Fold these 2 entries.
Entry 1:
Amino acid sequence: MKLLADENMPFVQELFGDRAEVVTCPGRDLRPEQLRDIDVLLVRSITRVDAALLAQAERLSFVGTATIGCDHIDTDLLARRGIAFASAPGCNKVAVGDYVLAALLRVAEHKGWALQDKTLGVVGVGNTGAEVAARARALGMRVLLCDPPKALQKTTDFVDLQQALACDIVSFHVPLTRDGDHPTWHLLNRHAIDRLNGDQVLINACRGDVWDNQALLARQQGKAPLTLVMDVWEHEPEVLAPLVPHVLLATPHIAGYSLEGKARGTFALYRAWCEQQQLGMQLTPEQLLPPSSIGTIHLHEAPDQALAARLVRLVYDIEQDDAAFRQALGQPGFFDRLRKQYPQRRELGSVQLTGLTGSGEALGFKV
Ligand SMILES: NC(=O)c1ccc[n+]([C@@H]2O[C@H](COP(=O)([O-])OP(=O)(O)OC[C@H]3O[C@@H](n4cnc5c(N)ncnc54)[C@H](O)[C@@H]3O)[C@@H](O)[C@H]2O)c1
Ligand SMILES: O=C(O)[C@H](O)[C@H](O)COP(=O)(O)O
C-alpha cells in the first residue's frame, strides 16, 4: 500500500506509517505521473484533484483532503471512478474562530471601538461562522446571521445579505461555489462594495474568490476606504499587491493553521481510511499533540475587551502574521513559503484560565 501526502500535512507518518509506505511532496506541483503507483492520496487545498491529475492514477482507491473547503476536488469524478473520498469538516473551525476573534480585537483597537456597541454580520453560518458568532457574542456584540441555504430550513432567525452587509463588521464564512441556488463566487461584488460606508469593516477568512479583489482595490483607492481583514485572496498564491497597503490585517491563508486544526484534519482522513479498510484506529488526536507552552493563567478580574485582547495576543498574535506577510510580499513564492514555514500555533483552548474567568470559555479558552 503506497500513500502520497502533501508535505505540509502533519502526523501522516505517525498515523499511516505502520500500514502504508508514506511519501510526501509539495502539493502545488503534484504531477500525474507521480500518482501511477499510488493507492492513497492525501491533499490540502492547493492541489486540484481533477481528471488531468488522475489520468495515470490507476491504483488509486482513496483520496482525502485534510481541509474543510472542497472546491479543489472533482468529487463527481471520484464517485464515477469508484474512488473513496473524505474531507475534514470542521477540523479547523476553532482556529478560524481564534483568528477572527484576534482580528476583531485588533480592529477595535485600531478604530477605538467598544465592541459591545457594535454589530457583526456573519455570512455563512456553518462550522466556522457559528464559531465566530459565539466568540463575538462573548465580546458582547450583537450578531446577525446570514445563510440563505439554512434560512430555507428556518432553524433560527436569519437576515438577508443586504442586512448583513449593513453591520459594522461583516465576516464571511461561505464555501466557494460557482453555481447552484446560492453561488458565492464574487458574493461581495462591485455593486455590494459600492453600497458600503467608509466606517465598515470586512473580514474574509473563507475563500479569496468570494470577494471581487479588483473592485475592492478601486474602492480602497477612493475617498471612503473600508477597513479590511484578508486571510484569503483571489488567485492565490498570487496576491493583488496594490491592495495590501489598504488592508489592516493581511495574512497568507492561515486562519485555520493551528496545530490542533491540522492534526484534526489529518486524523479525520485517518479515521475515514481506517473505516474504508475496516481497520481499527491505533491513535487518538490528543495523543498527537504536545502540551501547550503557556499552560495556566490565573485571572484576578474577569476579561473585559482590553484584557481579552491581551490574553488572546499571548496565545495568538495576528499582527505577527500580518508583519511577516508585508515583509515577504513581492518575494518569489512568498505566499506558499510563509504557509510552509508557518510557526507552530496553538488554539486558545490549549490555555487554562483560572480565577475570575468570566466569558473566558465562550472566548475559546479552557476554564
Ligand atoms: N482561511 C482558512 O484557513 C479556512 C479554514 C477553514 C475553512 N475555510 C473556508 O471557509 C468555508 C466555510 O467553512 P465552514 O466550516 O464554516 O463550512 P460549512 O460547510 O460548515 O458552512 C458553510 C455555510 O455557508 C452557507 N452558505 C452557502 N452558500 C451561502 C451563501 N450564498 N450565502 C450565505 N451562506 C451560504 C452554508 O449553508 C453553510 O451553512 C470553507 O468552505 C472553506 O472554503 C477557510
Ligand atoms: O478549507 C480549509 O480547511 C482551509 O482553507 C485550508 O485548510 C487551508 O489550508 P491548506 O489546505 O491550503 O493548507
Entry 2:
Amino acid sequence: MPHTNGKSGNNRRKRKFDGENDSSFKKILREKRLMKKRKQELKQKEENMLDEVQDKYQEMLKKSSRTFHSFEDFPLSWKTLEGLKENEYVKPTEIQRDTIAYSLTGSDVVGAAKTGSGKTLALVIPVLEALWRAKWSPEYGLGALVISPTRELALQTFSTINAVGKHHGFSCGLVIGGSEVAFERNRISGVNIIVCTPGRLLQHMDENEQMNCDCLQVLVLDEADRMLDMGFSKQLNSIICNLPAERQTLLFSATQTRNVKDLSRVCTN
Ligand SMILES: Nc1ncnc2c1ncn2[C@@H]1O[C@H](COP(=O)(O)OP(=O)(O)OP(=O)(O)O)[C@@H](O)[C@H]1O
C-alpha cells in the first residue's frame, strides 16, 4: 500500500519558496558543497603526506641513529608529531632513536630496553604509524596487539596510545585481568588497538567468537623476559599460533636470555 499522509494528491500543499527561504536554501547547498570540497582536499592532502613520508624511509635508513636529535627528524605523520608535541615529547631517548627508524619501515625489531628507558614510546609510535600507513579505519577492527606482563604496564601503554595517538582516531581497548570479561567481550570486535595481559587475551581467543585477529598488522611483546619469568610461555605460544603470519612483530626485553631468544625466533622473521 502506498504511503499516504492523509491528503489527496491534488490538495497536497506545495512548499513555497519565497525570496528569503530560497536564499537560505541556496546557502545550505553552497555550504554542503564547500564542506564536501574541503573533505576531498583534506583526503588528498593526507594521501600526499603518506607518499611523502614513505619516500623518506629509504633516506632515513641510510642515516646513523645519532643524527635523530628530535622526533621531527623522523618521517612521521603530522598526527603523531602533533600528539608528541602536545605531550611535550621532543627528543627521542636512546632506545627510541635506535629502534624507531627500523620499526617504521615495517621490519621486525627485537629491542633490548631497560626499565625507564622510554620503550613505551618506542612501541607506541610504530604502532600508530603502521596503522596510519595502512589507512586503517575504525571499522577495520583489530590492527595492533600489545601484550604486557602486568595490568599496570598495560594501563601505562594504553594511556600513552590515547595521549600521543589522539589525532589518529583509532579506538584502543584494555583487556586485562581483574576487569569484567562480559564488558570486554561485547566491545572487543570494534577495537583497533588492544593492550592486554596474556592470560586474559587467551581467554578471549578461546571463548569469545567476536575476537578476530585475521587482519592484525602489528604484534608487540613488551617486557618479554618478564612475561617468560612469570610463566606465560605456553600462553604466548598459543596466542602467536592464533595470529596471522604476515605481520610486523616488535619485541622488547630488558635481558636477552635463551628463552627470550627462542621466543623471538618463534615470533619474528
Ligand atoms: N622522548 C622522551 N622525552 C621525554 N620524556 C620521555 C621520553 N620518552 C619517555 N619519556 C618519559 O620517561 C619515563 C619512562 O618512560 P617509559 O615509561 O616509556 O619507560 P619504560 O622503559 O617503558 O619503563 P617502565 O618499564 O618502567 O615502564 C616516562 O615518564 C615517560 O613519559
